[in-house]
Design brief:
- It is built from eleven helices and ten strands.
- With 307 residues, the protein is of the alpha/beta class.
- It has a domain of 208 residues: 3-Layer(aba) Sandwich (Rossmann fold), CATH 3.40.50.150.
- It has a seven-stranded mixed sheet, sandwiched between helices. The chain has a three-stranded antiparallel sheet with strand order 7-9-8.
- Strand 4, helix 6 and strand 5 form a beta-alpha-beta unit.
- 40% of the residues are buried.
Amino acid sequence: MRGSTESIRTAAELPRLPAGPLSREPRLESVPVSDQATDESRQIWDSLASGWDKERAFINEIEGHVTGRMHEAMDVRPGDTILELCAGPGEVGLRLAEQHPEVQVLLTDFAPGMVRAAANEANRRGLTNAECRPMDAQDIDLPDGSVDGVLCRYGLMLVPDIAKAFSEVRRVLRPGRVLAYTTWTPPETNPWMMIFGAAMIQRGHFAPPDEGGIMPLGNVDENSAVARAAGFESVHAEAIDLPVHYPSFQRYWELNTEIAGPLAVIMKTLPEDEREAVRSQVEEYAAPFRTGDGLTFPSRRMFVRAT
């Protein structure tokens, strides 16, 4: 049923991936990251900005509850400046700006196309308390102690140097104020994600990172360790289970081939016959999740509040 909470299916019920962990432990200390790693990531997300902009309403319907939890965690006060990192087309920050005209919201992303999408939407809504800037979460171009809250929905897990990003957040955040963010748990707990990746891996189009993991910050301990290493003293992390519903397989396919990071970029390069072969394999994997009104996948994410 749509909107019901389903148990996460066991690994035996899902397509098999190559041996090795799907999640990787994030480093607690910053390490040098090549400009190439950041540049490649920027190019990927910049190329997908139009898709994220087009799909903002559907994504926000799915993630509305999580976004609300993040807003509540901010405990905003009149005159606050709230920073959103890895904002994509900016919906988390834009909604906060709409709900709280008494605060200033700075929306940032390292992909110029994402920043343009957020700025265009802020202008369309007439938000005078929202500003959009290009900015890398690993190198936040703001003074120490200059913001009253930091938001990030599914972005901190994707930066090349996670420890550096958390250190930067701690630096710019005023003492006692809140960092609220979300991450995805490992793909085996998110079959909507896993079946697309499994098909791409099995057909030789995608390989997990060299370290063998693709989803850091996927549990309570990892999030607590990274935040505390950056100087946060109080860390609350919890798993939230919310089903993800698509009205049809076609809608699932359209969305994921538009916005699913490196997988979506690779899909665009495949010849039509191979695209259809991948589609057929993904549709087969999706069959157990069919419902009377489309597809409903169990889905789990982490919600974290740190001060």
